[in-house]
Design brief:
Helices cover 25% and strands 24% of the residues. It has 156 residues and is of the alpha+beta class. The protein binds tetrahydrodeoxyuridine.
């Protein structure tokens, strides 16, 4: 038997420590919550992606009375990017959320399904996707989706 430890490197920033590119992406993710449709959870998720051509794509969660028909903000943004810019890599993703009108206190982290989807985008583009998780007072930054989902399923 061999025991291994898997480490995850996470950097924590105050807003004013972010560089201009990250701050802009965080702002656009916040704006993207306007596109959220969340009449059931009242949890409005906004996502902004930066593509390797400089394009920024927004996404937001979309709920449905048949709950399983809804989708998360992360996948809304990623599938929008894939459909419209199939040849471009997503090199950065920022996710933010408001609950009942207030930005969530803790950095908003993607659900497990979105983590799996994010990893496949990273795998197919052969470029790391940086991730910014935005909370009221701080932002967590990771260098790759794999840091969010160690031992992910991957058939490639
Ligand atoms: N949600 C997201 O959009 N992203 C996540 O990673 C977690 C959850 C959405 C789904 C649902 O519309 C609402 O947040 C509450 O779960």
């Amino acid at each position: 038997m061999t025991e291994k430890t898997i480490n995850t490197r996470v950097r924590e920033y105050a807003y004013d420590e972010l560089d201009a590119e990250d701050r802009q992406l965080v702002e656009i993710a916040r704006e993207a919550t306007r596109g959220s449709y969340a009449p059931y959870s009242h949890f409005h998720v906004g996502v902004a992606l930066l593509l390797d051509n400089g394009q920024i794509i927004k996404g937001a969660n979309q709920e449905n009375a048949a709950f399983g028909a809804g989708t998360c903000g992360e996948r809304s943004a990623l599938y929008n990017a894939a459909a419209n810019y199939p040849d471009n890599a997503v090199i950065k993703l920022a996710v933010t959320a408001f609950h009942n009108g207030d930005i969530v206190p803790e950095p908003c982290a993607p659900c497990g399904v979105c983590r799996q989807a994010m990893i496949e985008f990273e795998t197919k583009s052969h470029k790391p996707m940086k991730v910014l998780l935005v909370g009221r007072d701080r932002v967590l930054a990771l260098d790759s989706c794999h840091d969010l989902l160690p031992l992910a399923f991957d058939e490639f």
